[in-house]
Design a protein that fits this description.
It is a single chain. With 410 residues, the chain is α+β, with helices and mostly antiparallel strands. The protein has four domains: 159 residues, Beta Polymerase, domain 2; 78 residues, Hydrophobic Seed Protein; 70 residues; 48 residues, no CATH class. The chain contains 20 helices and eleven strands. The strands form three sheets. A seven-stranded mixed β-sheet has the order 3-4-5-2-1-8-9. A two-stranded antiparallel ribbon has the order 6-7. Strands 10-11 form a two-stranded parallel ribbon. Helix 1 runs antiparallel to helix 2 and helix 2 packs across helix 4. The model has no long low-confidence stretch (mean pLDDT 92).
């Protein structure tokens, strides 16, 4: 794969995402010329253009201070600009995409997982600080629109491999492990052998302990949102990134799964006795945290009672055990534990309970003499008798309720 002439990047931006963004880049180009600054399209933007992928955002590197450039742009355009003064970078926000404008720089990490200390530098410095060779290419926005590839990113794109740029890469920034898995999965690339060894060494040295729960959670969310999540999760488990014993389950398909089940599905690939450890590693929102807690609770109930349930096949007992478990949690268990005897019993239970629809409601029960504090107990009795096929009509339900009330009054 070779690029002989790229042409003006603005032209291919216009073709890919339209006139609006091409004109915005033209304004950036104009401002750069006015300020005598060199600007390059860099990183994932160049990578995706070479691969013929849809552009999700635009990355620009400025030789000089990017903040000076965006200040100049803001004089003529009504746009939203977020500045990060410490790093001399800015993000231009639009309705559809973002344009990241960074100052070309070198970076020094004083310790693993730290935010880097930066020094403004040249394009070579800026490309060498990046994560992988395929993200370390640049195209000048100044004529003659030179293509810059000092780290052989094009060669690696051609070979279909992910390669880091130095052996401290994962120690400096452990989140690169997750990006490696995402890129390998997204593009169906292999991970270069030396990069694999470097990753394994960094993981063995507990590099992830240097980043916060919030950063770890953010990276995992990105993994779970990848188009090819299954492959990314396989890498995650095979590299033992979390330090928890687990086995990848190819029967669990993230690509066809509801979003709210993905965290539970991921946890299910680890040994049950480590579920709580998995949960404690992340800072989850309430919905996902509750989903995991409900799943752990269901696993505990089933583990404590599975032998009895399978031997007795008592649907009434199953109902009393499982009535407080949300349906989506039962679905998750079935999805994560395919074709076991207990799962087959659980599927049968869900099929039966799905068909149950009582004819009497709470007000009906009160009118028949049921105390409001005993309504849930009576409903349980009616549901169990319906599940067992002992009653099937409103009149039969009423008879059971009357007998219940009379029994209390005897």
């Amino acid at each position: 794969m070779e690029i002989r002439s790229t042409g003006n990047p603005i032209h291919w931006v216009r073709t890919q995402i339209g006139d609006k963004y091409a004109e915005l880049l033209s304004e950036i180009q104009r401002a750069a010329i006015t300020l005598d600054l060199e600007v390059f399209v860099v990183g994932g933007t160049v990578r995706d253009w070479v691969l013929g992928k849809e552009l999700k955002d635009i990355d620009l590197s400025v030789i000089g201070d990017a903040l000076v450039l965006v200040d100049e742009i803001s004089k003529t355009l009504d746009i939203t600009i977020v500045k990060y003064k410490k790093f001399h970078t800015a993000t231009i926000k639009t309705a559809e995409i973002e344009i990241d404008v960074v100052s070309a720089r070198s970076e020094i990490y004083n310790y693993g997982g730290a935010l880097p200390e930066i020094t403004l530098g040249n394009l070579n410095d800026d490309l060498r600080r990046r994560d992988f060779s395929i993200n370390a290419m640049a195209i000048s926005m100044n004529t003659p629109y030179e293509f810059m590839d000092p780290l052989k990113g094009m060669t690696d794109l051609d070979k279909g491999i992910i390669r880091i740029l130095h052996d401290q890469s994962f120690i400096d920034d452990p989140t690169r492990l997750f990006r490696m898995f995402r890129y390998a999965s997204r593009f169906d690339f292999a991970i270069e052998s030396e990069t694999c060894r470097t990753a394994e060494t960094a993981i063995a040295e507990n590099c992830l302990t240097t980043i916060s729960k919030e950063r770890l959670t953010h990276e995992m969310v990105l993994i779970l949102n990848e188009p090819n999540t299954d492959s990314a999760v396989k890498y995650l488990i095979e590299f033992d990134v979390l330090g928890i014993p687990g086995v990848y389950n190819p029967l669990i398909l993230f690509s066809t799964m509801k979003q709210e089940l993905k965290w539970v599905a991921l946890m299910s690939m680890y040994e049950k006795k480590y579920y709580e450890m998995f949960f404690q590693k992340f800072s989850l929102d309430r919905q996902n945290a509750n989903a995991i807690k409900e799943f752990i609770n269901l696993c505990s109930i089933l583990d404590d009672n599975d032998a009895d349930l399978l031997n007795e096949m008592d649907i009434g007992r199953m109902y009393l055990l499982l009535k407080g478990i949300p349906r989506i949690t039962l679905d998750a268990y079935v999805m994560c534990n395919i074709n076991t005897d207990l799962v087959k019993l659980l599927q049968q239970y869900m099929m039966y309970t799905d068909r149950v629809k009582l004819n009497l409601n709470g007000m009906d029960l009160i009118n028949l003499g049921v105390d409001k504090n005993q309504i849930s107990e009576v409903i349980d009795v009616l549901i169990i008798k319906t599940l067992k096929g002992e009653i099937s009509s409103k009149s039969e339900e009423e008879l059971i309720v009357v007998q219940y009330v009379n029994g209390l009054n005897d």
